[in-house]
């Protein structure tokens, strides 16, 4: 039986917004393989709180494969093995919700929660969060990196196995008052559909956006500057291409600024206006801009910034 630890990072509060996965395989008394992947979630809406935790921003995952593509190589081991996760209900929830979001069948999964294991084998008044348990056991890792977290989870399970004298990680259920949890297969749900050109609402939205001009500029973003000042990034469409204007000093001098970069990259950490859907709309407008439009020489094609 394959035994492996898994950890997901998510882009926002939705369980189907996985943006990274890490895995660590155990054979006998050691870790024999590790893997980590970035994932492009169904929508590039990253909550500031999530970004502060894992440091992943939309620009990091924009060109990465989606969940089904990333997980295809791992699903056989997951469905046929025993999964370890620290606070397993969260990670199992991400796994099931993400499969369902893409209309994929959700098979049965068997798992053990290393948080519950740690509370029994390594109790401490300070708590049994992943970082705290790892620190007490001398496990060195970079917390909130999915691959590193999966490694730490696996090491905690191995430490518990040695501490209790269990015969293998799976044998922990025979020496501790806990059992393997099996999630029953879930129903196939409709595939996640992102608002876009292929929907009536999407066509209407894009038509409205592209009809906007300097006199009716509907795409505006309020951004918090590094000193706490509020700046506005606004979109105009000119014959030469899309034009992003910022109200900061650099923008007034027609120079590229970090506020424009943040909006183009989809980094919503300092987005005061919280119009996350418009950030994704801007990305799609940039991608759909006619090939003959002027090419921005710095980072984004067919977009001017000032």
From TrEMBL:
InterPro entries: Ribonucl_H (IPR013520), RNaseH-like_sf (IPR012337), RNaseH_sf (IPR036397), Znf_SWIM (IPR007527). It comes from the Bacteria. Residues 231-268 form the SWIM-type domain. Transmembrane segments: none annotated. GO terms for biological process: DNA metabolic process. The keyword Mitochondrion does not apply. The keyword Nuclease applies. GO terms for molecular function: 3'-5' exonuclease activity; nucleic acid binding; zinc ion binding. GO terms for cellular component: cytosol. Keywords: Exonuclease, Hydrolase, Metal-binding, Nuclease, Zinc, Zinc-finger. This is 3'-5' exonuclease. It comes from Methylobacterium soli.
């Amino acid at each position: 039986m394959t035994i492996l630890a898994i950890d997901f990072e998510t882009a926002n509060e939705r369980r189907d917004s996985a943006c990274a996965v890490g895995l660590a395989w155990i054979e006998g008394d050691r870790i024999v393989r590790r893997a980590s992947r970035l994932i492009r979630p169904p929508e590039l809406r990253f909550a500031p709180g999530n970004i502060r935790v894992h440091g992943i921003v939309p620009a990091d995952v924009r060109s990465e494969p989606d969940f089904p593509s990333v997980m295809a190589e791992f699903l056989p081991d997951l469905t046929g093995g025993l999964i370890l996760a620290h606070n397993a209900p969260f990670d199992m929830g991400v796994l099931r919700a993400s499969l369902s979001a893409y209309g994929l069948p959700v098979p049965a999964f068997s798992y053990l929660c290393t948080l519950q294991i740690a509370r029994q084998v390594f109790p401490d008044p300070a708590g049994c969060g992943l970082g705290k348990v790892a620190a007490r056991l001398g496990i060195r890792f970079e917390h909130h990196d999915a691959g590193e977290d999966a490694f730490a989870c696996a090491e905690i399970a191995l430490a518990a196995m040695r501490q209790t004298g269990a015969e293998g990680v799976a044998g922990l259920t025979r020496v501790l008052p806990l059992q393997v949890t099996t999630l029953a297969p879930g129903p196939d749900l409709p595939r996640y559909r992102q608002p876009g050109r292929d929907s009536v609402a999407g066509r209407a939205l894009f038509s409205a956006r592209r009809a906007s001009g300097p006199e009716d500029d509907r795409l505006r973003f309020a951004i918090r500057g590094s000193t706490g000042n509020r700046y506005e990034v606004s979109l105009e469409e000119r014959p030469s291409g899309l034009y992003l204007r910022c109200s900061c000093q650099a923008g007034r001098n027609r120079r590229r600024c970090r506020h424009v970069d943040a909006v183009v990259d989809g980094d919503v950490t300092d987005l005061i206006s919280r119009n996350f859907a418009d950030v994704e709309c801007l990305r799609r407008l940039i991608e759909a801009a006619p090939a003959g439009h002027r090419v921005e020489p710095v980072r984004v094609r067919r977009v001017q910034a000032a």
